[in-house]
User: Fold this.
Amino acid sequence: MNDVLKIGDRELTGRLFLGTGKFSSNRLIPDAVKASGAQVVTVALRRVDPEFAEENIAAFVPKDCVLMPNTSGARNAQEAVRIARLARAAGCGNWVKIEVITDNRYLLPDNYETVKATEILAAEGFVVLPYMSPDLMVAKKLVDAGAAAVMPLGAPIGSNRGLRTKELIRILVEEIPLPVIVDAGIGRPSEAAEAMEMGAAAVLVNTAIATAADPVVMAAAFGMAVRAGRMACLAGLGEVRDVASASSPLTGFLRSAASPASSPESTGR
Amino acid sequence: MACWEDILKITVNDREETVAEDSTVADLIEGKGLHPGTVLVEHNGTIVLQGRWGTTFLKDEDRLEILRFVGGG
Assistant:
C-alpha cells in the first residue's frame, strides 16, 4: 500500500509526529522516535539559562527526521515570525509549527494572530503548520494564507483529555483541502487511532508519550495505533446503525418442535 | 583594571552586562562557558551564524539574545 502524506517537499509514511518536551531524559528521545516511527519531530526555542547544564536537543533527533521548531512563547504574530526566522537561519530547515498563545490557563491558541503569522511565513517560503482551535472559518483562512496543513487541538495541551473537539475536527476533515493533523490533548493510543479513523492525516503527540512510565514502549503503542487507525480509514468503516443487523444467515434455523415460531428478524446475530 | 571607557554595556537576554572593549560574540559565548554548537545568537535583531561570531564585534548598548533549542511539543 503506497500511502504517503505529502507536506511541503516531503513524502511521509509515518503519520505520528512526536514532540520532545517533558522527557525525563533527552537520551530517551532517539529510541522514542524510532519506536514511534515518527518522521517529524518538534522542538522549541528558548533563551539560554547559564545556570542550567546545556544540551542541544537537536542532537537527539535522528538526522532523517524533519525537525519542526514550534513558536511556543510567542504571544502575537510578530513574535512567532521572529522565532521562525531565527530557527530557519540556524539551519533548522523551513518547517515551522505556529503556536501563538496568550491564555496561560488553557493554552488555547490565538487563531487570529496565527492566521497573520501563517500568511507572513508562507510568503517567505516556510512550510507552515499552524496549531489552531478547530474553527472552520479560521481553517479556511489558513488555507488561503498558505498553510501546509492545519493542526486543530483535541483538548488543551498536556491535558491527556482526548478528542474533546471531535465534532469540529470532523468538519475540518470534511471541508478543508489540506492535511488535518490533530495536535494536543491526545492522551491514549486509542484516541490517536480514533482521530486517524476519522480521517485525520496525522496526529502530534508529546505529553502522553513523554510522561508515560515507559515512554519508549508508549511511543511504539502510539505508532501502532496511528497505523491501525489510518488503515481503518483507508479500508472504510462500516455503517453505524441504531438497531441490530444480523451477521449470521437468517434462514435455516434449527428449531425444536415445541418451540413457537418466531420471526427471523428477532433472532440471530 | 580597565578604566570605564574600556567597558561596553550590553544587554543579553534582557539583562544588562558589561564586556571588555573589542569583545566579539565568540568572546561573549566563551565567557559564559557555553558550548558554541548548542546556541544561537541574535545581535541587534539579526541572527549571527557561528562562523561569524569571531568577527562580530560588540558595541556599547548592543542587544543580544542567546538561545537554544529545547524539548517542546
User: Anything to note?
Assistant: Strands of chain B lie at 7-12, 15-20, 40-43, 46-48, 63-71. Chain B touches chain A at residues 13, 32-35, 37-40, 42, 47, 49, 65-73 (CB under 8 Å). The first strand of chain B starts at residue 7 and ends at 12.
